[in-house]
Write a structure and sequence with these properties.
Elements: H1 9-39, H2 45-72, H3 81-87, H4 99-127, H5 130-152
Amino acid sequence: MDIDIGIKKTDRAKIAEGLSHLLADTYTLYLKTHNFHWNVTGPMFNTLHVMFMTQYTELSLAVDLIAERIRSLGHYAPGSYSDFAKLSSIKDAEGTPKAVEMIKQLVAGQEAVVRTARSIFPAAEKAGDEATADLLTQRIQLHEKTAWMLRSLLED
């Protein structure tokens, strides 16, 4: 059955493509954050272990919201490691970095997700896709706040 939600098919395809990149970034950041949760050591262990758990839990919920928005637009959501590797702007961590390096990588990852979310806004606004715009606004706000919180751990 054809989709008739007031957004043209071509616009839905462009938005879904952008959201696929956002999904890949979010899932890659989820995986990296979970990895760091498991492997963090040092004097900030407890603080970071708990903080990373909060962050990866939120990210795990976010991937579902993003994927379901893609499906609502009539497209299939990417869902494999190979898809995510092609679509994500976030690279895997190599080895097990020290805690401060973990924080720096997670700040960079949070900011990458913000940039990806922002890049989708023009297509969503042009199409009058308020649902996607709302999702993007929420993602941007959360990731900017998380990046700030992580950055604050790096200050003297």
